[in-house]
Amino acid sequence: DGESVTEMLREIGPYFLTVSGDAASKNFSFLCDAYLALPIDIIKRFKLVAVGSFSSNSIASAKNKFLKAGLLESLVIFQGIDDKKLIQLYKNCELFIFPSLFEGFGIPLVEAMTYGCLILSSNTSVMPEICGTAAKYFNPKVVEELTYCIRYVINNPEEHKSMRENIPAQLSRYTSERKLVCFNNWLTEVLQTNNDNRF
Question: What is the pTM of this model?
Answer without folding.
Answer: 0.87
